[in-house]
Write a structure and sequence with these properties.
Blueprint (H helix, E strand, L loop, with lengths): L4 E9 L3 H12 L4 E5 L12 E2 L1 H8 L4 H5 L3 E3 L1 E5 L2 E4 L10 E3 L2 H15 L2 E4 L2 E7 L4 E7 L2 E12 L6 H6 L5 E15 L8 E4 L3 E7 L5 E7 L12 H12 L5 E16 L4 E2 L2 E3 L5 E2 L7 H20 L5 H29 L4 H16 L1 H12 L24 E2 L15 H4 L5 E4 L14 E6 L9 E5 L5 E6 L3 H12 L6
Helix pairs in contact: 1-4, 1-7, 7-8
This protein binds flavin-adenine dinucleotide.
Length: 500
């Protein structure tokens, strides 16, 4: 290794959506962060098109949701297969839809935010080695034909499905292949489809069309009788034929600017943490694109980890808090693997029993509101909740909706002039304490928590004191707690005042 060694607080390997959101959060919290990305230039390969409601809420808590929505098209329902649609229009959120926008738009906004907040993003740097000791982590990287060293207190592998960090840690990635020989192409169409997203399936395969918004469309097609090794797509004429046969309409595909093939695996790392190194996003879990969950889950991993890691760097997080990244996010990853796996298997159903099951589920989903509502909450991420102690208030661990608030201090330079809702209050990356009184109890922790009262003092939170984590989930709540109880809860979640 050369003598050069860059020292920082957190090293992030991989500048995909997961790494970029994490970098922006850490930099906003004042943590020194460097992202190492092996690609020399920004990615122009869009995979994800769907940004779900919970991710939009997370982006809203970073001041990015409205800008992202301006780049795409909101859809009030999402068709999964056959006639099965999830209706998102009744979700209890500011974003009752799925946003269709190419992944590159999400990455661009996240990168701009991270750089503005002070994150260093180094491209053309491929991580090849990792060592850790009691004080920190050393990464070895190849850049410009040389090997260089990077040192930090913590490192996070957000380096995708083929994660080098995961391999260097010796963490396995068990699972199986779900579907092979899926063809991708970016094309122009002679006839614009009637719907924003066009999906179809037959006995032989499926096809999907989504707009980039600039006249180009992404087509994804699969035929069970065709095998194409990864990276060797069939000619455009065949892709057009597959799409036409499956969708039952000829949209006049022409002018492919790019095409490829891929196979989709269903895998999950058993451990998201090894000492001072964490895994997030596709490095920790991967599954079929059905339901559009991958990028969304990665963004939410990053939002869960960032404030815990910032607190550790600032010296007020316990090791147990860092462990909650695994206990909270591993079950979410597992549930996503299960639901996207079930979807893809039903969509690819070939055997008579599975096709019968698919028919039955179609009927159930069409007629049972409760199934439809659960489906919408599952797909959108709005239904995610984290485990809380048995004797905790029922709100603990739950997602907190965008409450109307009053009395918020500290408007940020780049934030709204007078914040009046929770997702604006979260933009500084701090906890939010909501209460009709006793707010001064939080004064000693003013560097870690902002305080506000519910806008409606007589509403549901009239007697409840609610402490909300920087990722928008309830840390703790109590009805009419005494000052001592409140201070104990603040000390539990925010450490000893003045520790940093
Ligand atoms: C066809 C398709 C459609 C999809 N549709 C959706 C959808 O609609 N919605 C959705 O939510 N998800 C979707 N996904 C999944 C989504 O694209 C991924 O989940 C998402 O890109 C994962 O983000 P990430 O940041 O974790 O990893 P990645 O985006 O894979 O980024 C990893 C980064 O790490 C870099 N890297 C790798 N190794 C190293 C190294 N050794 N050193 C330095 N850098 C390294 C890579 O160059 C890359 O930039 C789809 C996927 C596919 C294939």
């Amino acid at each position: 290794m050369t003598a050069k060694q860059t020292v920082t607080d957190v090293l992030i390997v991989g500048a995909g959506p997961t790494g970029l959101l994490l970098a922006g959060d850490l930099a906003t919290a004042g943590v020194r962060v460097t992202v190492l990305e092996k690609r020399g230039t920004e990615s122009n390969l869009t995979r994800a098109f769907a940004v779900h409601a919970r991710s939009l809420e997370m982006l809203d808590a970073r001041g990015l949701a409205d800008d992202l929505i301006a780049t795409g098209r909101p859809l009030g329902s999402l068709r999964l297969f056959d006639k099965v649609r999830v209706d998102l229009s009744n979700l209890p959120t500011r974003f009752p839809f799925v946003l269709i926008t190419p992944q590159s738009n999400t990455e661009r906004l996240l990168q701009e935010r991270a750089e503005k907040a002070g994150a260093t993003i180094l491209r053309g740097v491929e991580v090849t080695g990792l060592r850790q000791d009691a004080e920190g982590v050393t990464l070895e990287a190849r850049e410009d034909g040389r090997t260089t060293g990077y040192r930090a207190r913590y490192a996070v592998g957000t380096d995708g499905v083929h994660s080098t960090v995961r391999d260097l840690l010796g963490i396995p990635f068990p699972g199986e292949s779900v579907v092979n020989s899926v063809v991708l192409a970016d094309v122009r169409l002679e006839r614009e489809p009637a719907e924003v997203i066009t999906v179809g399936a037959t006995e032989d395969g499926f096809a999907f069309l989504a707009p980039f918004g600039d006249g180009w469309y992404r087509v994804i097609a699969w035929d069970r009788h065709e095998q194409h090794p990864d990276g060797t797509p069939p000619p455009l004429e065949r892709i057009a034929e597959l799409t036409r046969n499956t969708l039952g309409q000829d949209y006049g595909l022409h002018d492919a600017r790019w095409s490829s093939t891929f196979h989709s695996d269903e895998r999950q790392a058993p451990n998201y943490r090894s000492g001072r190194v964490f895994l997030a996003g596709d490095a920790a879990h991967c599954h079929s694109p059905a339901g559009g969950q991958g990028m969304n889950t990665g963004l939410q991993d990053a939002a869960n980890l960032s404030w815990k890691l910032a607190a550790a760097v600032q010296g007020w997080a316990t090791d147990a808090l860092l462990d909650t990244y695994q206990t909270e996010r591993h079950p979410v990853g597992k549930a996503v693997l299960r639901s996207s796996g079930a979807l893809v298997r039903l969509a690819l159903a070939h055997s008579a029993p599975t096709r019968a099951l698919r028919g039955a589920l179609t009927t159930i989903a069409e007629h049972l509101d409760v199934v439809a509502t659960r489906g919408a909450k599952l797909v959108s991420g709005i239904g995610i909740r984290y485990a809380a102690p048995k004797d905790a208030h029922p709100l603990a661990g739950r997602r907190v909706p965008d409450l109307r608030l009053t009395g918020l201090e500290e408007p940020r330079e780049d934030g709204p002039a007078s914040p009046e809702r929770l997702y604006e209050a979260l933009r500084g990356g701090k906890f939010v304490l909501v209460s009709n009184d006793e707010l001064s109890a939080a004064d000693p922790w003013a560097d870690r928590v902002v305080t506000a009262a519910p806008a409606d003092p007589h509403g549901k939170l009239r007697d409840t004191v609610l402490l909300i984590r920087p990722d928008g989930y309830a840390a703790w709540a109590a009805v009419d707690p005494g000052r001592g109880e409140l201070r104990a809860a603040l000390a539990h979640w925010l450490g000893t005042p003045g520790d940093n």
